[in-house]
Amino acid sequence: MWCIRDITPEYKERMYDILDLYEEPYDPARPVIGLDEKPKQLLGEKRESIPLRPGKIEKYDYEYIRQGNANIFMSVEPKGGKRFPMVTRRRTKRDFAHYLQSLSKRYRKATLIRVVLDNLNTHKLDSLCAAFGYEKAQTILNKFEFHYTPKHASWLNVAEIEIGIMDAACTAKRISNIESLTCEVNAWAERRNKAKKMIKWTFTKQKADSKLGKYYVS
After folding, report:
1. For a designed S-S bond to 38, which of 72, 90, 99, 114 qualifies (C-beta 3.0 to 4.6 A apart)?
2. CATH number for the segment(s) 9-209
3. Phi, psi of 141 (to 5 degrees)
4. Around Cβ 209, how many Cβ atoms within 10 Å?
5. pTM of the model as a whole
6. Domain ranges of the chain
7. Could you tell me if residue 152 is left (phi over 0), alpha (psi between -120 and 50 degrees) or otherwise beta?
8. What is the pLDDT of residues 101-124, one digit of tens each?
9. First to last CA, the chain
10. Pairing of β 86-88 and β 82-83
11. pLDDT for 128-184, tens place per residue?
């Protein structure tokens, strides 16, 4: 459930900006993507699980072994039917910078990549400067246009929907190591990209005014 309190002019302006992006016709030269991260705890089995069989789900013992943590970067282009996850061991400024560089290569034919993302402190120019130096960082960032969600409004990021789909399909279960996690996530994304699975965003500015108007403050 959303936790909505007073909606300030800044909140409303950012919300409108993102909702306008989602309503634009699809333009492969200026794609709109959502970008987010998902932490994943790596868990091993204390006892061997009972494998999947016809008519029977896989069964796990309640005990497990902690094997550390991982991070999953996720970007999704809802009208293009594309998503590009990347599994990393951590979620540092350098990890974000290298992920953004990988996106610029995937979208090398685009003139501008519009990115919806939250206000995490790693989502800034200095992350790329730390990884590549100012000149190269600026060259990469010239390819991007960032659109930040309002604070406490991550629900406006379409990447959260894709992460929920990924969780349901493969990452909610126990996975013991980063290699297996990478394999599972990449295989899932490849299947969805091949099928060109899209996300239909239906929450518009008009619906926002209807549902949230009573919270608007001047």
Report:
1. 72
2. 3.30.420.10
3. -70, -25
4. 13
5. 0.86
6. 9-209
7. left
8. 999 999 999 999 999 999 888 888
9. 25
10. unpaired
11. 999 999 999 999 999 999 999 998 899 999 999 999 999 999 998 888 899 999 999
